[in-house]
Amino acid sequence: MRIPRPRAAIPAALVATLVAAGLTVVAAGTAPASAAEVRANGDAIVHLFQWRWDSVAQECESTLGPQGWGGVQVSPPQEHVVLPSAEGATYPWWQDYQPVSYRLDSTRRGTRAEFVDMVQRCRAQGVKIYVDMVLNHMSGTGSAGSGPGSAGTVYGKYSYPNLFNDGSGDSYGYGDFAPCYRRISNWGNKQEVQDCELLDLADLNTADPEVRRKIAKYMNAVIDLGVAGFRVDAAKHVQEAHLGDIINRLRDVPGFGGRPDLFHEVYGDGTIPYTAYAPYGGVTNFDYQRAVSSAFRDGAIAQLGNLPNYGGLTAAQAVVFVDNHDTQRENPTLTYKSGARYYLADAFMMAHPYGRPQLMSSYAFGSVHGQGPPSTSNGTTLAADCTGSAWICEHRNPGVAGMPGFRNAVAGTGIGSVVTDGNGRLAFARGNRGYAAFNATNSAWSRSFATSLPDGRYCNVGRGAYDRSTGACPGGAVTVSGGAFTASIAADQAVALHVEARLDGATPTPTVSPTGSPTPTASPSVPAGSTRFTATVSTDLGQEVYVVGSIPALGSWNPANGVKLSTTSGSYPTWTGSVSVPAGTAFEWKLVKVGNGSVQWENDPNRTGTAGSALTATWNQPGTTPPAATTVSFRATATTTLGQNVYVVGDLPALGGWDPTKGVRLSPTAYPVWTGGLNLPAGTAFSYKYVKRTDSGQVVWESGANRTATAGSVTLTDTWR
């Protein structure tokens, strides 16, 4: 859930409360975005618990970006205590949640340079980095005096010198901690819960503006590196007004062009409800976790078609999960140890529009509560290896891997046509974009399902991720005909179909062709062959390179359906990719840069090729002139609610082809005026409308007829209707 600028994020009454309490209300976004706008995937977050920075970077490039994950939650990157042995564990996982400074110099997961490299490489794949932020406290009674921190800082429970190692002298001493100085004993007393010590951890005195300044200084330091957001650990132990003041001090995220994205760990109860923290970002919904995990464990999922607002949190406010690093050990309703039923619950979470999903991806653990990640003898975390038994890598399970793509494809649609068959079987439509069915029983479920999906053959992404570049479909195909499909769903498995995993080559007719009017070429009936593309292309941050061409396998001149090429830090600016089409098929093609709100075609003429060969190219052939383009600027006046952003969506590929998940996002810099633009060939006529959309997928179209315009260095000034 994105936090809008202060005028939209924090109600006037709350601002007055902050001022009355002596808290600052600072205009957010004081630092300019220094990097180009970065394309982002959907809203689904995977928690790569305790992974090394270099392993996270590699996973973004190999798996998370291609599969459509929107973000990665990483373990706390700040310097922490080092405990060779504690409570029966060697270097327990929870040592990372006891910081001793705000330095990124060294943790068990890597260096500052490796952290920065991870952020940049993941952003290049459209994957945001979310830092697990330990904001409430520092180290604990049992850790003080155990030795220097992971970067060498010598500390005491109430003494933390040289917090930043930047010459500022910023530190924490005895007076910087809440004056309670004892463990929480009365959990029914809100003041005690928020001002005393959680598990004997030194509780920072966030009532002090200087403490809040230092916390925000650290958060801004990692924001400036490109970190997009935070999971705020133990948020309920920080007074709401103090948390609001810290958030108000944060800068905009460079490149993503918006406010940092926060969600808060809150165990809601009668003393401190979840909703107390909803004005400040998303809120972790443990009520959802208990209800949905139990339902799948017990095979009683029929009632989950239409979910309530668990804990009073709306879909836009809730961050939902089946398990996390705490519940795996403290309340193991469902974990990877539960087998197929656990992954079925994860798939359901990804398919249902309630809340923003956070999926746990962890390492194997036994009976010792604090067991740390696979490590060397000195506590350094080993590289994640998803082919062995030490790392579980839940996000790669076939029952889960295809669901980020499903979620992204159906964003903006609701639940419809709910089907049940006993307590353990549930199916529902996501508009005319997708359909999902779940069988939480011990026997197969065979029946026909009515659907609004267009007729055709679809990859079942409920049993594996669809690879558009190669056409690989490990989950098998399902045929929709006459508004229905028939399937036999095995015990504890799912069927999930969506319009962007269609196998029979149907693609939208392009509104504007790249050069002239290219004519599609029919594919002859000959054996399949692999065509490999190698392209030399320099790009801006946030841009990706596609091959788009005249045949369905290359998108039928629609960039949204082209073949995405890939590059690595070692091979850039060389981009490579492959596609399987019948050998000998002749086609035309071009290179396209996609990102930063625009689609950029390389110069004329169209290239030609034959399937089964290796094709190489360099962007902009010598002697050609880039096509004439003009900037179309948008200025739309629109008021929004918490979490909403405004997009321009239209009939051109550059405007998403009427798909609100692919439109041009506008900036709220001059709120309530939203601004943005894109490049189009001069004279291009197009239709468009404005859309309000949340990161969790809710979409509101403006009313009235389609708007129309013609490109030509024009500024379109409109008011939401």
Secondary structure layout plus pairing:
Elements: H1 6-9, H2 12-20, E1 45-48, H3 53-67, E2 71-74, E3 106-107, E4 110-111, H4 112-124, E5 128-134, E6 137-140, H5 190-195, E7 201-203, H6 209-223, E8 229-233, H7 240-248, E9 261-264, E10 282-284, H8 286-298, E11 318-320, H9 327-330, H10 340-351, E12 356-361, H11 398-401, H12 403-410, E13 416-420, E14 425-430, E15 434-439, E16 445-450, E17 456-459, E18 477-480, E19 484-489, E20 493-498, E21 528-536, E22 544-549, E23 563-564, E24 574-582, E25 586-595, E26 598-601, E27 607-610, E28 614-618, E29 630-637, E30 644-650, E31 664-665, E32 667-670, E33 673-680, E34 685-694, E35 699-701, E36 707-710, E37 715-719
Parallel strand pairs: 1-2, 1-12, 2-5, 5-8, 8-9, 9-10, 10-11, 11-12, 21-28, 29-37
Antiparallel strand pairs: 3-4, 6-7, 13-14, 14-15, 15-20, 16-19, 17-18, 21-24, 22-23, 22-25, 25-26, 25-27, 29-33, 30-31, 30-34, 32-33, 34-35, 34-36
Query: Within the largest sheet, what's the order of strands?
Result: 1-2-5-8-9-10-11-12
- Please report the total strand number as a whole number: 37
Give Rg in angstroms. Answer: 26 Å
* Structural class designation: alpha/beta
CATH architecture of the largest domain: Alpha-Beta Barrel
Give the termini separation: 25 Å
Q: What brief labels describe this structure?
A:
37 strands, eight-stranded parallel barrel, five-stranded antiparallel β-sheet, 721 residues, 4 domains, alpha/beta, disordered N terminus, Immunoglobulin-like
